[in-house]
Amino acid sequence: MSWDGQGARDGFVVPPMPTAPPPGPAHPWRAVAVALLNLSGLGLGYAVVRRWALMAVCWVATGILLLVALPADPDGVPGTAVVVYLVFLVLAAAHGASVGLRSRLALLPSALTAAVLGLVLLAVPATGVVLYDGARDEATEQMLLDRLDRADELVEKSGKSDFASGEAGYRRALAAYGALRDDHPDSRAARRVPEALETYYATVGAPYARKDYCAAVQPLKYLRTVPGTVGKKAVGDLADWPDDRLATSLYECAAASLSGGEAGWTAQFGELLSTFPKSSQAGKVEPAVKSAVDEAVGSVGGDDPCAAVKQLDGLATQVRGLPGDEAGLSDALGKDADRASGSARTGAYACGLDQYKDKNFSDAVTTMTDFAKNNPHHKNRTRAQKIAIAAEVAQTVPAAGKRLPTTASGGSISVTVKNDSPDEITVLYTGPVTGSFNLKACKGCTSYSLGSTLGIGFKPCSDSGKHYPQRTIRLPVGTTYFVHKSRSATGKSPASDTAKLSPGYVYTECAYTTSSFGY
């Protein structure tokens, strides 16, 4: 035989050698083992069949997942990433099973050993999931603790300003505490909320601790609304924390305003009596009011009686407006109001005297007239009427107000006042004695022109054909000031006369009107 160099020998052809070993017989356990090893995510199934490049692809895919998942976040791994990775593992397992079905295994002695190892290695991703869930829970706890810390910082910051400026911050912090309790009740942050609320109450109510009672009212009223926001269970014993403090603040602030003559005390006492009618603080309201009335009554005899009378008038009205029924104080408060009102009425006399002495004659007229009207049986009523007359005269003749009038009457000198005018008039006079009277209008009398009054021989009340209304009074020696004013016509100015009365004479006063100057 001979060879031809091309595989032919004596006419026979030898087929070429295969480029790779022929595939082995199908082995299902190998397929299962490779698939299980690939499910670990580490590509170990490809390693036992020496498919190193495919194993590297598995490592890269797992590495990408770890980059996306770590560090653990409260929101977890994005769902898309998880789905893609699971699909990849299923494909890797399926492809590994296909490859391992007819491929010999390396590195491991048998397919059964490889399958058992694959099952064991499934604990790796399962353990990873458990560890990741724990890390995610811890990340969530830290996130919630950070929220709690931010809320605590907000409370601390708000506490450095007044309540009006810090209220918005307090409300945001309270909302954060409520959300932690409601949404994450089993978290470490939620378990710290009661302690945080204690600090919250102490911070909001800090003005009370400083005894700044007026500033404490609004924050304490706000704290009473907190259980309605986060629930009474959340605040526990703190629900009643503001009540006694608020009652004390309302009383102390109102009492200070009352004693200082400032406004606002009635609203605070009213709120105290309505909100805490049975409290010890409510029981102190009437004594405080009584003390204020006593002080005001005592001030009527002081340097500024008019201010005291005004204060008493105000106290009477304000005290009557207090809601004392629920506290059982209505009767006592009513007596205080009546005493203030009565003292104001009688104190008007001292006020009128002070006004007269200060030359405030217009106010003195009003004050003394009202006093005489409101106190018909008062011992000073007669003199008050005299002072009112003198003050009215002094408005026209200031010299008449140099001294206070007395209640004296009569005298040795006869003075007759006649009315030569078409108007009914009032004649007021003051001096050694003070008084007033009215004269009817003169029928047939008219106003005089200014020119006629300037002429030589002008003499009113001299027409024998007219019946002049008149009245004769007796006055002492000395200077008496007269004022005549119309009782019916408006726009006419009163006229005045100063009479120096001497013994042995009979005097006549004549009232008449001119067209431009009045009486």
Structure description:
The chain has 519 residues and is α+β, with helices and mostly antiparallel strands. Among the domains are: 28-121; 408-512, Immunoglobulins (Immunoglobulin-like, Sandwich). The chain is built from 21 helices and nine strands. Strands 5-4-7-8 form a four-stranded antiparallel beta sheet, covered by helices on one side. β4 and β5 (435-439) form a beta hairpin. It is rod-shaped, with a radius of gyration of 55 Å.
Task: Fill in the keyword field for this structure.
519 residues, alpha+beta, Immunoglobulin-like, 4-stranded antiparallel β-sheet, 3-stranded mixed β-sheet, 21 helices, 9 strands, rod-shaped, disordered N terminus
Low-pLDDT stretches are 1-5
CATH superfamily of the domain at 408-512: Immunoglobulins
Order of helices and strands: EEHHHHHHHHHHHHHHHHHHHHEEEHEEEE
How would a crystallographer describe the biggest sheet? 4 strands, antiparallel
- Kindly state the percentage of residues in helix: 55-70%
User: Helix count?
Assistant: 21
Strand order of the main beta sheet, please? 5-4-7-8
What is the mean pLDDT? 83
Structural class, from helix and strand content? alpha+beta
How many strand units? 9
Tell me the distance between the termini: 178 Å
Assigned CATH class of the domain at 408-512: Mainly Beta
- Beta-strand content bin: 5-15%
CATH topology of the domain at 408-512: Immunoglobulin-like
Any guess at the CATH architecture of the domain at 408-512?
A: Sandwich
Radius of gyration: 55 Å
Secondary-structure topology with pairs:
Layout: E1 8-9, E2 12-13, H1 28-39, H2 44-48, H3 52-69, H4 79-100, H5 111-121, H6 123-158, H7 163-183, H8 188-204, H9 206-209, H10 213-223, H11 226-230, H12 232-235, H13 241-259, H14 265-275, H15 280-283, H16 285-299, H17 305-320, H18 330-357, H19 361-374, H20 381-396, E3 413-420, E4 425-430, E5 435-439, H21 450-454, E6 470-475, E7 478-486, E8 495-501, E9 506-512
Parallel strand pairs: 3-9
Antiparallel strand pairs: 1-2, 3-6, 4-5, 4-7, 7-8
